[in-house]
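Input (structure):
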């Protein structure tokens, strides 16, 4: 069962439109930020609740 946006109720269509708007806004904000020099590679460590340096993980 594949729901296309036209098959969804109006409230669901509004929710999808709002989510797309939030994604575009977040992407624009991310693009507007200056590039970090000398930063860490890979995913943001704060997102996972710990930092890893030379194979040692430190939890906050």
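Output (sequence):
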């Amino acid at each position: 069962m594949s729901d296309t946006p036209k098959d969804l109720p109006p409230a669901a269509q509004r929710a999808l439109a709002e989510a797309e708007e939030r994604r575009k806004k977040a992407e624009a904000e991310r693009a507007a930020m200056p590039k970090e020099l000398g930063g860490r590679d890979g995913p943001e460590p704060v997102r996972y609740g710990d930092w890893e340096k030379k194979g040692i993980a430190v939890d906050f």
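Notes: The helical segments are 10-32, 45-48. The mean pLDDT is 77.
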